[in-house]
Every structure is written in C-alpha cells, then in structure tokens.
Amino acid sequence: MQVTQSHDVTGHVDFVGAGPGDPELLTLKAIKAFESADIVLHDRLISAEILQLAGKTAVLVDVGKAGFGPSWKQADIDALLVDYATKGQRVVRLKSGDPTVFGRLDEEIEAVEAAGVPWQIVPGITAASAAVASIGQSLTQRGRNSSVRFLTGHDMKGFADHDWNALARPGAVAAIYMGKKSARFIQGRLIMHGADRATPITLVENASRPDQRILATDLDRLPNDLSAAEMDGPTLTFFGLAPRHAVQALTEFKKEHA
Amino acid sequence: MQVTQSHDVTGHVDFVGAGPGDPELLTLKAIKAFESADIVLHDRLISAEILQLAGKTAVLVDVGKAGFGPSWKQADIDALLVDYATKGQRVVRLKSGDPTVFGRLDEEIEAVEAAGVPWQIVPGITAASAAVASIGQSLTQRGRNSSVRFLTGHDMKGFADHDWNALARPGAVAAIYMGKKSARFIQGRLIMHGADRATPITLVENASRPDQRILATDLDRLPNDLSAAEMDGPTLTFFGLAPRHAVQALTEFKKEHA
C-alpha cells in the first residue's frame, strides 16, 4: 500500500521481502529500497550477501529474536521503526522470504500506521516458491491439486492445529513452514486422519542457498529421516510432493517391476 | 533444479516467473536469464515493459492461448521449447507470476526433460503476494490464521470444487486465482457450508500495475459488486481479507456506534 509522504521531513518504512537467501532472488524493487535506506532493521536469518547490498551509509541493525546479545522484544522493534521514521529516516524493515507469509508483519504495520508514518510492503519470494523450484515441481498441478496450503508448524499456542482431514486426502499438497519440531505431531495427526503412510514428503533446508539440502522421504519415515539428517538451517517441508527425479525414478521402477 | 549442460552446443530452458506485472517485481535472476536469452516464449499477459527487458537480439514469441492469430496448443509449445533448445538456443519460457502456482508448468517440463534438455525454474512473485501487499495485509497472521490456501476458481472439469467446509470457518483466508467467473458458484458453496455472509472479500485487478483496482466487498455482495465493477484484467480474489484501511474504518465505525 503506497502512501504519499505528507512533507519532505517525514521518513517512511518499507517492509521488504528479502527472499529465501539467494541475493539473485531479490526483486528490483527490494534492491532499490535497500540501496536508498538510511537504516535497515533486519531479521537474524538474512544472509551476509544480501546485507552487503545496502547503501554504504546505511546503518544495519540485527533485530533478530535469537542469538547472542540482548533479546529484542516486538515492542522494541515497533518503537525503533517509529522512532527512526519520525526523525525523517528512510527505514527498511527487511524480513526473510515474503513479509506477508508467516512474517509477523501486522503488529509492526499497526505501530507505524498509528504514528502516521507512510509505509509500503515490497513482496518477496517466499521459501515455498524457491524450495519447490529446487525440486523441479509445481505447488499446483492440473489433474492433481487445484489448491495448495501454506501452513505453519507452530502458532502462538504451540504446535499448530489444522484441517488434517482435508490434508489427509489423496493429492493434497501443503508447504509447511517451521515444520521440523512439529514433524512427529504432524505425522501423528495426518495418519490418525487416514493419510497414506507412503505420501511423499520432501524437506528443503536452506532453499536457494549454496548449502541447500533436499531430503526426500515419506510420511511413515519422516521423523526418523529428519532426525538422521540433522537439519539446522531454515527448512521447508512439502507434504504430498517428491522431487521430480525421484518421481521419475519411482515411476520407472514401478514400470520395470510391473 | 539446476542441471549441468552436457556439452556446449546443448541449449537449455529456463522457466521464469515474470511476476504480477510491475517490472520492478522481477527478480535479478529472472532479469539475467531474460537478458541472455536467444528466444523468449511468453504468455499473452506479460506486459510490454517486461518484454522490453529482453536482450536486443532475442526473438520474442507470444504463445498465449487467446487473442488474434493462430491458437497455440500445449503440444506446439512443448515442441517449440524442445526444438529451439536442442538447436543450442538459450530459451526462456516466461510465465506470469510464479510458474509453480497455477502456471501449467509440468507438461512443459516433462517434454523438455524427455528430450534431455537441461532446464531450471526461476521463481517469481505470485499474484497473491503482490495483491495482498497492495491492500496492506498479510496472507497469514498470528492469532487469526495459521494457514492460507491458494485456490483456482477453474480446473479441468470446470468450476473447481474445494474443501468448502474448512474455508467456511471463521478466520479462514484464501487467495483465489481465476475466481471471477466462478464467483457466484464459490459464494453459493461457501454460504451452503455455513460461511458468514459478512466475510470480507477483496478483489485486486491488475495487481502491481498502473491500472490496479481494488474492490472491497463481502460474501453476500460479491456477485453483484463484481458484476458492477466490470473487471477485465487478471484479478485475484481474497476470501477473508479486507483492505487494511477498510478494516480500520470499520473498527472505528463500530467504536463510534457501540
């Protein structure tokens, strides 16, 4: 939402999607916002290659909620955004992926809006999009699934509950964000609701980054395979999708053994 | 999926997401693929501003399925991709939005793969992402919805059927692609499954383009308001989301009249 600046001294806040990690997956619009920023407040997971694209005079502040150093509360981030912008600074609030997908954006927008600061959202490539490209699949496919769900493994109450019954149906496809810790919970819920234990599951760690790893498994083996893989980076879990070459290999295997 | 070229004369195919229309919403990776392409096969809806970014010697071919001139069949497009790539050309197959989201990508990948042509997917900003940014909302929000669905209004059998029961629940959010013609069908199904007639619905026509229009309505008024608005461009329908300022206005209205 583009809001016109009321006068020259007013700063503004751009909520910018940094994409999944590969700097080449930034949009031109994100780069422009980034290059002209006076200050960049960024999440912990933003890669160094991306932070290097900020203008030389820009101040970079890591407001990530984990890691060493003082922990940032949401209210502190909100206050910082408003503080800089009302002093006339061009603020970029840089978030991994797309800020509108599990980006916890709304509280920050509300704070900025309440202070009368102009703002806009610059969309980014969300992790599901980069991860599915890396396995050569589509999130939707004619004749297979005419919808796709983006879920989070966690919500404010702990492991997030979902419409497991619908997900358990043949052909359903979901992209699960933050699904590692809740993998066993999700497995249990889906099997309880009748999902096929052989439903393909693919995990993509560090999608689009040089250290990207792909783990192809199924619903039955998910917790064990995930535990064995020791994935430490941000990971996207696809329910109902196998990597394209694995699909082909399986089809050929079935043909040979038919 | 990056596949190494076997030898120098082999061409390749990049399936590239052009984003929703604003050239600034292209990724750097898309632009690089585009600038170095020998031939670009593009959908009908790709804007002239984006096509101008192709290298000066690139051949542009509109393989859109509507409009004047001979109609392109999917098999013809598949054959053309393979034909150019096996002649050593760098082919870009440019699709609106993100090619993995309702992009009808798989048949083309299968054709290219069967011919042994290297290929990759370059993700793009999907229409839902740009459209939700334009109304200042998030696709997901803590405490409201821990999942979001991307649906299509049409599938191969006509109006697409979905898990209406789950969608009809309070707080559900969906981004409906190609939802204009099926608006009355969707309305009927959702109301039949108990959805609140006052559920906010927002339509964004030509998201991110200069001629973008936003229509804020609700489930009850959807067919009539949509008909009156005469939206001809590609339109994204949000179920369960109102534009941020309309949300605020409504909250203030309710406060004043409480």
From TrEMBL, chains A, B:
Pfam families: TP_methylase
Highest classification ranks of the organism: Bacteria, Pseudomonadati, Pseudomonadota, Alphaproteobacteria, Rhodobacterales
PANTHER family associated with the record: S-ADENOSYL-L-METHIONINE-DEPENDENT UROPORPHYRINOGEN III METHYLTRANSFERASE, CHLOROPLASTIC (PTHR45790:SF3), SIROHEME SYNTHASE-RELATED (PTHR45790)
Classification via InterPro entries: 4pyrrol_Mease, 4pyrrol_Methylase_sf, 4pyrrole_Mease_sub1, 4pyrrole_Mease_sub2, CobA/CysG_C, Siro_Cobalamin_biosynth, Uropor_MeTrfase_CS
GO molecular function annotation: uroporphyrin-III C-methyltransferase activity
Similarity comment: Belongs to the precorrin methyltransferase family.
PROSITE patterns linked: SUMT_1, SUMT_2
Organism of provenance: Ruegeria profundi
Protein name in the entry: uroporphyrinogen-III C-methyltransferase
One of the GO biological process terms: siroheme biosynthetic process
Sequence ranges assigned to domain Tetrapyrrole methylase in this UniProt record: 15-222
Keyword tags: Methyltransferase, Porphyrin biosynthesis, S-adenosyl-L-methionine, Transferase
Enzyme Commission number(s) of this protein: 2.1.1.107
Pathway per the UniProt entry: Porphyrin-containing compound metabolism; siroheme biosynthesis; precorrin-2 from uroporphyrinogen III: step 1/1
